[in-house]
Specification:
Blueprint: E1 3-7, H1 11-22, E2 26-31, H2 36-47, E3 51-54, E4 68-71, H3 80-87, E5 91-94, H4 95-103, E6 108-112, H5 117-130, E7 137-139, H6 145-151, E8 182-185, H7 188-192, E9 201-204, H8 212-215, H9 218-231, E10 234-238, H10 242-251, E11 256-259, E12 274-277, E13 280-283, E14 286-290, H11 299-314, H12 319-328, E15 337-342, E16 345-349, H13 356-365, E17 370-375, H14 384-393, E18 394-400, H15 404-413, E19 419-423, H16 425-439, E20 443-446, H17 459-474
Parallel strand pairs: 1-2, 1-4, 2-3, 4-5, 6-8, 6-9, 7-8, 9-10, 10-11, 11-12, 16-20, 17-18, 17-20, 18-19
Antiparallel strand pairs: 12-13, 13-14, 15-16
Length: 476
């Protein structure tokens, strides 16, 4: 029996373990952490015949080497044990690549980029579903990619074994067999560990410095993302992104480009692009829908719309289905998500803004003056545009988390003094309500510009805390 070792007891790791177990592999799943919730998962997976080792880091012993190592997205690709495994010729891949091995006979739309991935992925999935396709969203959004593979009746050509234990199912699954399309949001971490993943349509939303603590240089970060687009049969690019535009048709001569500022600003063959002209979205010179059909605010969301329309038309989806899907689209949780209106003040959850560029876009999109809640676990990056937008639009800034002191010092450096360190979300929400009344601000915006891991397990958990506190303090 072949042995597989999976690193990371998260949603992706568990889905990979169940998929391999179904195919007859002997599976060990390990995680360097331990907690009560992890121990509960350990017991559950043990009942399925999957061994879970907690507080454990993989070591490669010559007498018992696995034939396959699968890495969850949060595990760095360059840790010594993975380098050693690759040098030994052990098949070492990410969870997304494992899913691709099972689902490569199905066309994929792969969406990557620094910001805008989730909204664009959700828009594309909504359009494909409105057109009658079974097209689950997966990866960094919705299901883990291996959950889609687990529920599909498409079998991996790479497997040497017949499926076993086919009763194992993804908990609470709403999936059905054999997708028509796979709509995958794919991060740089997942691309890095996916050497063969090749979408039919690749979409690149934006490119700005992020994850440099992991990828080291901007060039390396770019090359990782570029590798996915190079393997894609068709390519869609945000032509309004300065960095992607700079690379332009020299790097991507056959791509489809988009622009919110009209056909004249398209790169490459202007008959191939998607653009906005006279308040209409056009693709390849055909009017598709009116921009006003999109309920989400901000020029960045219009750009996300263009990329989604381009992907849909390249897949052959009729414009009536596109228009209907966009008209019905409610937006994405934790991305400029309206939570509550209290005494005329809109409380908006933008917890997914985990870097300076995303936070700048969120702040620029809402009405001013704004009471901004920011902070968390800081990331490397250029905060210049974010700081300038704060100076232009924020009546006051409330700072939470580990970055609070550093952010306060940074604001002070530029002469912005309307900030307070409140440390926690529980203190920030009621104080934001007070300040909004004081400054006659129409918006309270949580847009942290930081990762969440200092105080929360995820940006979703942070956003849910904001939601609950808003309802607790403002619905009395």
């Amino acid at each position: 029996m072949l042995n597989a070792h999976i690193i990371g007891l998260g949603k992706s790791g568990i889905a990979a373990a169940r998929l391999l177990k179904r195919e007859g592999w002997q599976v060990i799943l390990s995680d360097g952490k331990t907690s009560e919730s992890l121990r509960q998962q350990q017991q559950e997976l043990s009942r399925e015949g999957i061994t879970v080792q907690l507080g454990y880091s993989l070591e490669l012993n010559a007498s018992d080497l696995p034939q396959l190592i699968v890495v969850s997205p949060g595990v760095p690709w360059d840790i010594p044990v993975l380098i050693e495994a690759r040098n030994k010729g052990i098949d070492t891949i990410g969870e997304m690549e494992l899913a691709w091995r099972h689902l490569h006979s199905i066309p994929w739309v792969g969406i990557t980029g620094t910001n805008g991935k989730t909204t664009t992925t959700a828009l594309i999935a909504a359009i494909f579903q409105a057109a009658g396709f079974y097209a689950p969203a997966c990866g960094n959004i919705g299901y883990a990619a291996c959950e889609v593979a687990l529920e599909s009746n498409v079998k991996s050509e790479n497997s040497e074994l017949s499926p076993q234990n086919t009763s194992i199912q993804t908990p609470n699954s709403k999936l059905q067999n054999s997708p028509d399309w796979v709509i995958a949001e794919i991060s740089s971490y997942q691309i890095e560990s996916s050497r063969d993943l090749a979408p039919h349509i690749g979409v690149w939303t934006t490119f700005t410095p992020d994850h440099l603590s992991r990828h080291k240089t901007l060039e390396n970060y770019y090359n990782i993302k570029a590798s996915l687009l190079q393997r894609s049969h068709l390519q869609v690019f945000n032509g309004d992104d300065p960095y992607l535009r700079q690379m332009g048709i020299e790097h991507w001569p056959n791509a489809y480009w988009t622009s919110v500022t009209g056909k004249d600003d398209l790169l490459g063959d202007r008959s191939k692009g998607a653009y906005i002209q006279e308040d209409w979205v056009f693709f390849q010179d055909e009017p598709i829908l009116q921009v006003a059909a999109l309920r989400m605010v901000g020029a960045h969301n219009q750009q996300n719309l263009l990329m989604a329309v381009a992907a849909a038309r390249l897949a052959g989806i009729e414009k009536n289905a596109i228009a209907q899907a966009i008209a019905d689209f409610p937006g994405v949780p934790h991305r400029l998500e309206h939570i509550i209106t209290w005494q005329g003040i809109d409380f908006i959850n933008d917890s997914k803004a985990t870097n300076y560029d995303a936070a700048q876009v969120g702040l620029a999109a809402v009405a001013s003056p704004t009471i901004l809640i920011a902070g968390g676990e800081a990331k490397a990056g250029d905060d210049t545009n974010w700081i300038e937008t704060i100076q232009a639009k924020a009546a006051a800034v409330l700072l939470i988390g580990d970055a609070a002191t550093a952010f306060a010092e940074r604001l002070k450096q530029v002469g912005y003094e309307c900030y307070e360190i409140v440390e926690t979300m529980a203190q920030a929400v009621p104080r934001a309500a007070e300040l909004a009344q004081q400054y006659d601000a129409p918006v309270v915006l949580l847009s942290p510009a930081c990762a969440s891991f200092d105080q929360y397990q995820s940006f979703e958990e942070r956003g849910e805390d904001f939601r609950q506190l808003c309802h607790k303090h403002l619905q009395k």
